[in-house]
């Protein structure tokens, strides 16, 4: 391509990117201003950096508590999924039993079931056992919902690991369990990253499932507390915008440090499923 | 004795490796799924303690009482328009950002940002734009179309959802298209240029045919995500005004958890499931077909 054309294309796309970023600019900018100033002119920069809205949002959203809840739920659910799904996938690949093939087929088939087809009976069953409003149940549910995709991805990866590595360990007298944790598990790191990234983004941002399970305010996750913040204080815009910035911040910080992995993980996840 | 031992040992290993997965999977997905299908044949609601089997009544009601069908058609409009525009935009971005232009990597990362953020938060961000920013621009510059908020107009609220969906997903689909375009062998593109294929001709005759697998992935991702959309719908429009922007998922949620018609709501959820399942199966078949051909 001609050099001049490249520069023009570069500028066009860059302008488009700026347009794409306008919503974030509006929210960040006005999180430092008052509601009145926002309504008059949302584009004007703040006179001075005023963190008043942040203090307000921080308190009303019970931000630290929601952040803690989101972190606990995401970390425990994702580590649970990675552990159990990789073990299962390993076993299914290395044992050519009929039952294993059936299990794998059912897991893969279940990937087409959308959450909406499960949610009503799920709430009915766990509600009737008085198990709602409990973080541990939510984590257990993520463990269940996360299995099909994770097992599928690990299964595809483990199939391509040469069996000779394990045979050598077996000669040395290692048990199946030792072989998995010492030989196979470390080899799974690249694919672990893929599953980890997709599951973290999914669980961290998920709204519908936690909104059905976590009912009391003190165990709310970030998306839930954002929602209740907006429905409770819908008139005063400025603190709401500060609340949005606070909610976005953790993911953006993560993105700045691990962009490459995140983008790669998303591509792998989309292509393989 | 040793045979029995080895059976016990094998079962033990089986349970150790797959037990946790199976327990979680069966109790969270399998049991609720089949119990859900059973529920669709009952008239269970919150008012009466016991409920009866009513056969296909819920499915008949879902198709005939108008409510579900109306929202389903609105959902189809939303899904098809946003899938169409989103994929074209994503492809064009991907094509432009694989030409080796300045700041290419940086711009890719930038367009991807909306995807990191949950639908609830994105919806609220855009609510300020539609309700306050666009209307202000409309009034200040005398642009009639912008002076009233999209969110309060029954004909335009669905377009607000479409616009935000395009903004949200085009960066994501772009990343998948980029992966497809990068995999086209350099020689193919070079020889095409030598043969005089430039610009649009090159895009339509060389690039697009070579990235059909990526197109299939992207189109089906956008279709099935569209049919499942809920978070954005809730925070951006909440179905308003007058249900004109209420998508199927939100309708099902209301039917079950607000109107407490669990049996009917579940029947509608199953109809939605069948639509999404049919899409997924079509995708798999298409992908297989192209794999065989290439």
Report what the structure shows:
The complex is a heterodimer of chains A (273) and B (294). With 273 residues, chain A is mostly helical. Chain A has one domain (52-272): MetI-like fold. In chain A, 78% of the residues lie in helices and 0% in strands. Chain A has helices spanning 3-30, 35-40, 52-60, 63-94, 98-109, 116-128, 135-158, 164-171, 176-187, 189-205, 208-213, 222-232, 237-272. In chain A, α4 packs antiparallel against α5 and α10 (189-205) runs antiparallel to α13 (237-272). The longest helix of chain A is centred in the last third of the chain and has 36 residues, at 237-272. By secondary structure, chain B is mostly helical. Chain B has a single domain (60-293), classed as MetI-like (MetI-like fold), CATH 1.10.3720.10. Chain B has 13 helices and no strands. In chain B, α3 packs across α7 (157-182) and α4 runs antiparallel to α7 (157-182). At the A-B interface, α1, α4, α5, α6 and α7 of A face α1, α4, α5, α7 and α10 of B.
The biggest beta sheet of chain B reads: none
- Return the CATH class of chain A: Mainly Alpha
Oligomer: heterodimer
Which chains make the largest contact? Answer: A-B, 89 and 82 residues
Q: Which superfamily, in CATH terms, is the homologous superfamily of chain B? A: MetI-like
Mean pLDDT of chain B: 90
The radius of gyration of chain A is 24 Å
Rg of chain B, please? 25 Å
**H and E order of chain A:** HHHHHHHHHHHHH
N/C terminus separation of chain B: 54 Å
Query: Share of helix among residues of chain B?
Result: over 70%
* Low-pLDDT residue spans of chain A: none
CATH architecture classification of chain B: Orthogonal Bundle
| Strand count of chain A | 0
* SSE class of chain B: mainly alpha
Strand content of chain B: under 5%
């Amino acid at each position: 391509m001609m050099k001049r054309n490249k520069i023009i294309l570069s500028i066009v796309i860059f302008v488009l990117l700026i347009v794409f970023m306008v919503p974030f600019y509006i929210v960040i900018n006005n999180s430092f201003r008052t509601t009145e100033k926002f309504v008059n002119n949302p584009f004007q920069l703040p006179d001075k950096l005023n963190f008043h809205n942040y203090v307000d949002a921080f308190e009303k959203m019970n931000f630290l508590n929601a952040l803690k809840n989101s972190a606990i739920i995401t970390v425990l659910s994702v580590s649970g999924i990675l552990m159990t799904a990789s073990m299962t996938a390993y076993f299914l690949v290395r044992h050519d039993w009929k039952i294993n093939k059936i299990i794998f087929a059912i897991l893969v088939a279940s990937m087409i079931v959308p959450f909406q087809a499960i949610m009503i009976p799920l709430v009915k069953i766990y509600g009737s056992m008085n198990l709602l409003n409990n973080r541990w149940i939510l984590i257990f549910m993520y463990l269940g919902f996360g299995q099909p995709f994770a097992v599928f991805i690990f299964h595809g990866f483990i199939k391509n690991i040469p069996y000779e590595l394990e045979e050598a360990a077996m000669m040395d007298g290692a048990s199946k369990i030792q072989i998995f944790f010492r030989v196979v598990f470390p080899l799974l790191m690249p694919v672990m990253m893929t599953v980890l990234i997709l599951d973290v983004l999914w669980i961290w941002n998920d709204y519908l499932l936690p909104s059905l399970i976590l009912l009391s305010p003190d165990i709310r996750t970030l998306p839930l507390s954002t929602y209740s913040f907006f429905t409770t204080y819908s008139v005063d815009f400025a603190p709401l915008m500060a609340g949005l910035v606070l909610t976005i911040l953790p993911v953006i910080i993560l993105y700045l440090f691990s962009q490459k992995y995140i983008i790669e993980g998303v591509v792998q996840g989309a292509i393989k499923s | 004795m040793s045979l029995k031992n080895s059976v016990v040992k094998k079962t033990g290993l089986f349970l150790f490796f797959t037990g946790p997965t199976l327990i979680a999977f069966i109790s969270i997905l399998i049991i609720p799924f089949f119990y859900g299908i059973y529920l669709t044949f009952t008239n269970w609601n919150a008012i009466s303690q016991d409920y009866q089997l009513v056969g296909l009544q819920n499915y008949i009601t879902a198709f005939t009482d108008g409510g579900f069908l109306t929202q389903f058609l609105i959902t189809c409009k939303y899904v098809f328009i946003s899938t169409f525009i989103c994929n074209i935009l994503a492809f064009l971005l991907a094509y432009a950002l694989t030409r080796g232009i300045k700041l290419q990597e940086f711009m890719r990362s930038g367009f991807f940002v909306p995807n990191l953020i949950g639908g609830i938060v994105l919806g609220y961000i855009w609510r300020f734009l539609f309700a306050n920013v666009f209307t202000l621009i409309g009034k200040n510059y005398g642009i009639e179309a912008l002076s009233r908020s999209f969110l309060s107009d029954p004909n335009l609220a669905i377009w607000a959802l479409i616009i935000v969906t395009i903004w949200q997903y085009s960066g994501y689909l772009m990343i998948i298209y980029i992966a497809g375009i990068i995999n086209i062998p350099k020689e193919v593109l070079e020889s095409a240029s030598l043969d005089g294929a430039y610009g649009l001709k090159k895009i339509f005759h060389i690039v697009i045919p070579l990235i059909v697998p990526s197109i299939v992935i992207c189109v089906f991702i956008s279709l099935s995500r569209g049919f499942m959309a809920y978070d954005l719908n809730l925070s951006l429009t909440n179905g308003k005004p007058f249900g004109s922007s209420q998508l199927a998922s939100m309708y099902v949620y209301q039917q079950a958890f607000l109107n407490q018609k669990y049996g009917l709501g579940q029947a509608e959820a199953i109809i939605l499931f069948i639509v999404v399942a049919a899409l997924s199966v079509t995708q798999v078949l298409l992908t297989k077909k192209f794999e065989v051909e290439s």
